[in-house]
Amino acid sequence: MHRTSASRAARLTKAVAQFPVARYLQPGRYLKMADSCAPKFSAQTLKEYELTLARYPTRQAALLPTLWLAMREFGWISPQVEQYVAGLMGLPPSHVRAVVSFYEMFYRKPVGRWHLAVCTNLPCRLRGADQIVRAIRDRLNFEHGDTTPDRRFTLETVQCLASCGSAPMLQLNQDVYHENLTVESVIKLIDELAARAD
Amino acid sequence: MERILSRWVDIPDLRRIEVYEAHGGYQAWRKVLTEMTPAALIDEVKAANLRGRGGAAFPTGTKWGFIPRDSQKPVYVCCNADESEPGTFGNRYQLENDPHGVIEGLLICCRAVNAHVGYIYLRGEFALQKRRVDEALAQARARGYVGRNVLGANFDVEIYTHRGAGAYICGEETALLESLEGKRGYPRNRPPFPAIHGAFGCPTVVNNVETLSNLPHIIARGAQWYRGIGPAASPGPKLFCLSGHLNRPGLYELPMGFPLKNMIYDEHLGGGILNGKKLKAVIPGGSSFPVFTADEALKVNMDFDSVRAAGSLMGTGGVIVMHEDTCMVDALRTIANFYHHESCGQCTPCREGCGWIEKLLIDLEAGRGEAADLDKLIDIADNMEGNTICVLADSLAMPVRSFVRKFKEEFVEHVRRRRCPYRFERGYAGAAPRDAPPFPPTEAGAAS
Amino acid sequence: MPKLTINGRELDAPQGVNLIQAAEMLGIEIPHYCYHPGLSVVGNCRMCLVEVERAPKLQIACNTKVAEGMVVRTESPRVKTAQAAVLEFLLINHPIDCPVCDQAGECKLQDYYMDYDRKPSRFPLGKKNKKGKALDIGSDIMLDQERCILCARCTRFFDEVTHTSELAIFERGDHCVVDTYPGRRVDNRYACNVVDICPVGALTEKDFRFRMRVWYLHRAPSVCSACARGCAIDIDHHRGRIYRYKPRYNPNVNRWWICDEGRHSFTAVQREHRLTQPLVQAADRFAAESWEAALARAAEKIRRCSQDYGPNAVGALVGAQATNEEIFALKRFLSRTIGSTSVGGVSFSSADARPGDTFLIRADKNPNTRGLSALGLALDGLASLAFAAGQGELKVLIVLRADPARALGRAGFMRALGALEHLILLDVSASQTASFAGQVLPIAAHPELDGSFTNFEGWVQRLHRAFDPPKQARGALELIGALEKTLDGIESDYSAPAVFADMARAEAAFHGLSLEGLAHHGARLNGVAV
User: What is the CATH number of domain B328-417?
Assistant: First the structure.
């Protein structure tokens, strides 16, 4: 009895993991689950969203800013977030996903606390971007994947970030530029970030 | 030479409005609103012969002239701050350090075409730059330079920033408009042109950051003065972005027509080649354009027409310098990777061709290529160029053709030896980064 | 009318048409994938590049409108190079799985490759991008992302025509895929149109998958009979079996589209559901008999009743499934041969029929309700005939393509028409009314018919016979002609064109029309405001 229900639960978990969205979308079936994990903007963000709408003559034009609000609020754009944004803005979810998947900065899976975007375009490579990437990989010990198992760091190689005169460089958490990197300086940076409590 | 577009180097805190005003800031805007008609304004810009700094070098005044005078629909102005061309980084420093200069230019443009809303489309990665522009906008709004009934001149204008999210193609003006409308950044077919059917189906002007930031100076000091800088056919100051194997890479303001040789070797400019190496190649205008061999590079003057006559294009003024240890196959592979990655996927030749070229170059660089691949690369490039909606395909075709033709022996060598002949592993060791950049850095080091 | 030159030939083209349309007027093909006249122009496939004098670059014909003095070349070396290049690009990541692809034979990649490229591949098979295959995306559609050329016709159809947006293009560059939103399915009543407009084998119909090679199919232009819209269709058939309906362009009726219900409505008339020989009811059982015997029996009943009770004792009930010709012929048979005026129409849509919409689908599930009324038959014919039967005035009823027992229910039918002496049913398959019939005569179904329908807006469109009716089933017109001959020995021409011609003479609404004149796009009834 006990075994049966455990294996059933495992099967169910597996099925849900395989088709999380499909299950989520079937009205009525997994309603509880849908309720519990349905994302929603905070009141403050909703207010910002309303202000954003006012800047454009069409509703859809506010999609990118709204997705940015969602990035800030939820950390990444999960399928549930896509559907929330679609519902909020009255757009087909397929259109929201079409846009999300076109732009690289919308994370489509969770990323680590520290997101390192290292430019590996030509001007940066001419000044040793490959060594920077290697140094980060070695320091953080990851051969496979791009996020450390403790979810502290995500490494991404990106295209030109308009910092060619101060190459090589990386952008931290989609914001601050760290430029004129050397292997030593980037290792120092990583060690500092790793040591931080937040 | 006097720094005009990069005044912030000499004027600390230029991004604060009091400082900006103390140095003549918003006087041009006041003059435009109170002393000039829109027609006179356009004439002045035409007289200055300001040409777009975003890459296409189209005369700005003429572009404005395409906007219907009696448009029944609203007119929009977009500032293209999606700077993403590899080798180009001038806009970024302008937005960071002189946001008011860009805003004032945008306001002047709004007046010229009777637009009451302007958008500044910043690439998604420009988080700091967006904060700086938003701060500056708030200051300008508080001083009444932006908003309703500006300076009592019965002119309403609102400026908004719009943040992209990581797509090179959105620097293409129609893709930018699509992106502004909340869609995938797909370039549009022309006709219709943005001047008739742009943002939200309305007449729209899209101007680059650097183009707009010239405007306050042209208005304040006159077209005559402006034309005195550089060659008559493409006058004005220009921000050149030097990158790659130089002792002093960085942003330098020079007059149009400045010799490339001096840019590279002058000790107060590029400062010569890194580690005393020999110059091998230069891409003069950002990675989209044909490469120059060292010989070609040392002869050319940097203005739109001279570079074109020498067989390349000045584009955005992004000068990428490569020394003798650079593997040109790997350099081209890196460029191809970029365009493959950034192709929007809309048109067949670009969508399929960019990936094909990159796959061929990966094999060539790894020593798995064949002699026939060189012709194939040229052929693919020829088949891509000019056959697509926008010029992204051309932007790969041009470097491919020039790299393969001008450095053919290097490609052949890869095939013959079945490996890359360069000693270095991937990446170009020996590029010891400098201690200090030429301009105040961004908020680097102050990690959040 | 701008005058332009295409490949050296002059043309006065209507203002506003593009170069693909203009060239077509001269019989010149400009190959294209993404352009579809029913959708917005995106110009992404780049297949329609042509040379336009004074334009430095090749121009896409789909986005170039004709202009006065324009000089266009569609076969110059530059154009040919570009066409071959685009095909090569399209094929490098294409799986080339034609041997197992249902589109083979009607695939624009295949066709254009043969016409415009014919070069061997320069791209190694092992390096092709991998994408999703055989994805069940809902409705009746399977998606193969590797075969897809990203022309965006399907996404535009769902965005612009149905406004349902189930499909979109995700990702970027050569990783782009057409797909549904995860967990959502294509679910609208017009979904299968995307299979038709898909120029390659990326979208295929489950119903048709692996069933038939398209080059074995024969095609007959006809009209869908699933509702009062009467969408123009092509019947694709092989050896008396229908494999699919495809919408046929008719600007007056359905443009390029058809609903999925109509598209799949042919299953009801496939052979296995059909009546195939004349039946006679005796002691609650049906027995087969020969056509001679059946006709003789019917004629005898009609003759006797009309002699005994007067001509109006013989009546007819015509369903809105009958063609204009059948309605007219039966009405004329009653008046001319028997002298009866007891004729009525019925247009019945069952209560559980799917509702109409604002696009194509009509609530009235009959293709020729308008034809009935245009030919002067009351649509409430059943009520008056039932009244006459109840009064004992109606004894013999000929029922053509109608099912009163279904419309009234069995009890209702008995109350209304139970007093009849003899009911002669002419129908395609065994209906509920059949069990009350004295005789059941098998007739041809719509795909087996020559004739016409009048749609709800008064557009008269032609049906062409795709193949012969199964076994002993006969055309209803032929049957009426045979009955007439049996009764009064007169033999007249009961071919559809002849009957239509008679109808055009006799009926004001059809004056001036002819069956041949209906051509591909039909003609409007007289007296209908356009």
Answer: 1.20.1440.230
